[in-house]
Write a structure and sequence with these properties.
alpha/beta; 6-stranded mixed sheet; 14 helices; 13 strands; binds pyridoxal-5'-phosphate; binds zinc ion
Length: 407
């Protein structure tokens, strides 16, 4: 496999470690599949994401192929896909939930962190870094800690203390950065390589490679078929691009005949991709973001927005925005109908499925894979306020007698 980077848009190829094409669009790694690879579904028994090593530009790290597997690099991916009939009525389709909260740090970001950190070690980087104040920061720091490579996390100055503490438990070097945090994403990529710091930001080529595995696992589970649709919460467009790339590669290799439609969901208060899609625009424009409880997917100027838009057109999908009330209802349904706790940013996927099914874009008989991107266990209530009354121990028998006859 090569490490040549290429532009999905204009096709230009780069041998250096650029993350961006001269046309401004993000690059991804060129996949140079040989005649009989990938074997589909794979026969590999490598753990987690490494099952799909045929579709990666690097070999699995030694620990991942050891028996038993060693270290957290071997633990990203291979998350459950649950058929959840109890959610069909709410959604208006046949729901399958991909439980990304089962990853080591509770989100799909671990897929890209595992591959990105393994590649950074392979390429002799001095350190890894990321520009994030949420799941990606935590995930990159955790995988760097396990691989014993220094990690630099650049957060905004006004980051809430409790989020800093969650990132801090893996002991990365953290810098609170003042100035225009929105431009730091690009700036870190420009200066990182000069100083031996491999920045694993949300849509860089290596993170994208690792994040292909969500879609690879979905197609693997449905093999030889594929789901009718894949629904993703979208912010930077990195995961969306990776999903599209995975489907392209499987299709081009003849591993799958049809590709699922991709559906992208954003909070209505900050929905640049969904708005561009609905207007029929060729490019995504920056929006003025409003407030939303799904703040971790509120990217007003997504670096892979245009690439995500292209993915929608190419797969015959659609994008929608959902309100906070709609996403709260979905978060509650996931918890109370399926026993699944997801963060607000993930709940938008089920809320969007419901909306797209109501307008007929998703059919009631469609098998849709709703990607629950992150666990709800990092937040307090998961959208369902606890309902607890106080009872003295002396009254416990009466309480149990009443329980079951009351609610
Ligand atoms: C990062 C993240 C997303 C959005 O992914 P992008 O690749 O930035 O589009 C969605 N949900 C959760 C839980 C995330 O952590
Ligand atoms: Zn280009």
């Amino acid at each position: 496999m090569t490490m040549t980077r290429c532009c999905y848009g204009c096709g230009v190829r780069y041998d250096a470690t650029d993350a961006r094409c001269d046309c401004g669009e993000p690059l991804w790694l060129e996949t140079d599949l040989d005649a009989d690879s990938p074997e589909w579904p794979p026969e590999s028994d490598a753990p987690g994401i490494w099952r799909y090593a045929d579709l990666f530009p690097l070999d699995p790290p030694a620990g991942a192929t050891a028996s038993p597997p060693e270290g957290v690099l071997a633990a990203a991916g291979d998350t459950p896909l649950l058929r959840t009939p109890t959610l069909d009525d709410f959604a208006g389709a046949r729901v399958h939930v991909k439980v990304e909260g089962e990853n080591p740090t509770g989100s799909f970001k671990d897929r890209g962190s595992a591959l990105g950190v393994a590649a950074a070690l392979d390429e002799g980087a001095q350190a890894v870094g990321t520009v994030s104040h949420g799941n990606m920061a935590m995930s990159t720091a955790a995988f760097a800690a396990a691989a014993d490579i220094p990690c630099l996390v650049l957060v905004p100055e006004d980051i809430p203390e409790e989020r800093l503490a969650i990132i801090g438990q893996f002991d990365p070097s953290i810098r609170k950065v003042t100035g225009d945090y929105g431009t730091l994403y690009e700036r870190s990529l420009e200066v990182g390589t000069d100083h031996g710091v491999a920045f694993l930001n949300s849509d860089v080529p290596l993170r994208t490679e690792g994040q292909k595995t969500t879609a690879l696992e979905l197609c693997d589970a449905f093999a030889p078929d594929v789901p009718d649709g894949i629904v993703l919460p979208v912010s930077s467009g990195g995961h969306a691009s990776a999903t599209w790339k995975a489907l392209q590669e499987l299709h081009e290799a003849g591993a799958i005949d049809d590709r699922p439609a991709l559906y992208f969901v954003q909070p209505a208060a900050c929905a640049p991709i969904a708005e561009a899609f609905q207007r029929g625009d060729d490019e995504v424009s920056r929006v003025d973001a409003g407030e939303t409880i799904a703040y971790s997917i509120a990217n007003a100027d997504p670096p892979s927005g245009n690439r995500a838009l292209e993915a929608l057109r190419d797969t015959g999908g659609a994008a929608v925005g959902v309100t906070d009330d709609e996403l709260r209802a979905a978060q509650r349904a996931l918890a109370t109908e399926a026993g699944l706790t997801v963060e607000s940013s993930s709940a938008v996927a089920l809320a969007g499925t419901r909306k797209l099914a109501a307008e007929g874009t998703i059919g009631s008989g469609d098998d849709v894979a709703v990607v629950a991107t992150g666990t709800g266990l990092k937040a307090a209530s998961g959208g369902v306020p606890a309902d607890a009354k106080t009872v003295d121990i002396s009254a416990i028998a009466d309480e149990l007698a009443a329980f079951g006859t009351s609610d």
